Amino acid sequence: MTTPADQRVRDRIRRDLDTTLIIEAAAGTGKTTELVNRIIAVIASGRARLRAIVAVTFTEKAAGELKLRLREEIDRACHDKTGFSAAEQKNLLDALEDLEGRASAPSIRSAPICCASVRSRRASIPHSRSRRKTSPRRCSKTHSSDGSKRR
């Protein structure tokens, strides 16, 4: 098997956990795989619990696939006795329990659902009179504070 030309970037995604990264790539290039690998690395390292992680995708189908693959890979990692230390194994087992508990499962949503949620929360926040009013930026599609579309 040949090494991918972008292996250095893939390694950075998996290992450079203290840096925020934006990954852009064409369909089928392994973005979901690398995101799952990064989430597992974050959990195993103890930097975050699974229930504290939010992942946003562009479609419901992608969100469903990400949830499924994340569960499969966490389960696989829990049973991999050679790749993780005892402390990392415990962190991964805790994540598996989080997934099975469902009450504290990770939030993996598609962008339209997240945007609707943000709009509804923003609409419920009262504005202070002391704030200076500014004009919103205009675009071809905007949404009113109640979430309905207007042109």
Strand-pairing-aware structural class: mainly alpha
State the share of residues found in helices, binned by percent.
Answer: 40-55%
Radius of gyration: 19 Å
Sheet-strand content, in percent, reads: 5-15%
Low-confidence stretches: 117-148
Number of helices: 5
Describe the structure.
The protein is mainly α. The chain has helices at residues 7-15, 31-45, 60-78, 86-101, 111-123; strands at 54-57, 107-110, 142-143, 149-150. The strands form two sheets. Strands 1-2 form a two-stranded parallel ribbon. The chain has a two-stranded antiparallel sheet with strand order 3-4. Strand 3 (142-143) and strand 4 (149-150) form a beta hairpin. The longest helix has 19 residues, at 60-78. The chain is globular. Residues 117-148 have low confidence and may be disordered.
State the main characteristics.
single chain, 151 residues, mainly alpha, two-stranded parallel ribbon, two-stranded antiparallel sheet, globular
